Amino acid sequence: MFVGHYAAAFAAKAVEPRAPLWSYMAAAQLVDIGWSSLVMAGVEHLRLDPSLPGSALVLYDMPWTHSLPGALVWSVAGGLLAMVLLKLPARAAAMVGAVVFSHWLGDLWVHRPDLALWVGGPKVGFALWDHPVPEMIVEMGLIAVAGALWIGQRKDEGRRAWTGAVFLGALVVLQYVSAVMPGGGEPSGFARTALLAYLAVTLGAWWLDRKPAA
């Protein structure tokens, strides 16, 4: 799952708009921001296997980011950072933390069994990646429903709906590009590209939120 993770960010923004959109978008991928950074640092590891259906990722070593305890730690940290650094009220900060944890739940559906229930413990994953068309339908469906809720919230604030629609369209294009990209290359290069994509989406959300209501 890639842009499907952002559905949680859009839904959270519609329900609890006091947190900025960029904080929710960063939260939705915070686990993967940590993962890509740790892969580049040589702490966590992956292989790329282009012969696999759907995603070429073989995620055999990522205990600090994608184990269940690891995801819970990242979620609590995300919520606390939102409260301390962004001065968000407790409910909004808790929503940021919940969005962080939604990443692990989304990965549970699409990953092959590579999500450890505890460090060194059994690994789970329902492997929707092995069925690329249904997986893409699920991701696009999540984005469509949550994005519609978010655009409705933007309209209630007096903001233009079309700018939100353009942002959603950019995410769909990003998902398509990631799906058709070759699955080879160096793991560190893949992690670097992924990190840049997460940061670019977060920056785009920041820019969109700073536009004055009109």
Average pLDDT confidence is: 93
Reading side by side through the largest sheet, how are the strands ordered? Answer: 1-2
- Number of domain modules: 1
Largest sheet: 2 strands, antiparallel
Q: How many beta-strand segments? A: 4
Helix segment count? Answer: 9
**Cα-based radius of gyration, to the nearest Å:** 17 Å
What's the arrangement of secondary structure elements?
Blueprint: H1 6-15, H2 21-28, H3 30-40, E1 45-48, E2 57-61, H4 63-66, H5 68-85, H6 90-110, E3 115-116, E4 123-124, H7 132-156, H8 161-180, H9 187-210
Antiparallel strand pairs: 1-2, 3-4
Please characterize this protein's 3D structure.
The protein is mostly helical and 214 residues long. It has one domain. Helix content is 66%, strand content 6%. The protein contains nine helices and four strands; from the N terminus they run αααββαααββααα. The strands form two sheets. It has a two-stranded antiparallel ribbon with strand order 1-2. A two-stranded antiparallel sheet has the order 3-4. Helix 3 (30-40) runs antiparallel to helix 9. The radius of gyration is 17 Å and the shape is globular. The N and C termini lie far apart (34 Å). The model has no long low-confidence stretch (mean pLDDT 93).
